Task: structure prediction
Amino acid sequence: MHRKLIYLINPISGTGTKGLLLEIIKNKTAEKNIPFEILHTNAEGDYGFLKEKIAAENITDVIVCGGDGTVNQVAKALLSVAVNIGIIPMGSGNGLAFAAKIPKRIHKALECVFAGNAVYIDSFYINRKFSCMLCGLGFDAQVAHDFAKQKKRGLATYIKQSTKNFFKARHYNFEIILDGKSINSEAFFISIANSNQFGNNFTIAPQASLHDGLLDIVVVNKMSKLRLIWTILKQIRSGQVRMYEDKKYHRNDIHYFQTKKLTIKNLQLAPLHIDGDPAETDAAFEIEIIENAFKLLIPA
Result:
């Protein structure tokens, strides 16, 4: 099959050296005799222009060299377009890439691109805003808001902001409406996940699949900070999906369930992030899966 690639490079994502990235992309793609073009991402996150370019120039693959936020913007713009999306992980977290087992090393990630193994993956809407990976309300969203204000990115900065927020973390009141049932919860955070992790292989929804047609919902309820650490570690290691049971709900530290859609009433306006980027919160959220949203290049 004839292929033609566009590489989109985010000049400010993560901490990597962009000069080295450009050199490797040019050399390795030329070796494969695949026509390609390199474009920079834009600060506005507007990629509507790609639709016309893809159609006019018979582009088969758009490769995002950046983080989850850039992948979100590109995938959202290309939802209705017959094109493969690839990822060279260059962000601070790279949650979607790692969930799809795309290697972080540039050479290995490019091998995945060249192999051309594309599969449909799901995404979801939260109040009609697009997410391809994971949204959060509460603690992790506050970390995302604070992290976005930092001059230096990367894992060390993220850990620093997470630690600072942990000691001042508070719980929020939510009402979750699922399958006609109303569940009241005091929670440190709620994760709505299509991928299994926040990023950097920090897994919050161990049973999540990118293409099972379901969202994984993780509710981390009010508890002591010491217990919170132990509970999160257990969730990362072996969190299990369980059906909602009214009699046991308030006895459990973490609730983990799967659904195609739900409503969350955000009674105290907990902060929101979408795919790791801070987003404007709201008093209520309608959340629904988008099955087979786009084709992602993954390892064979």
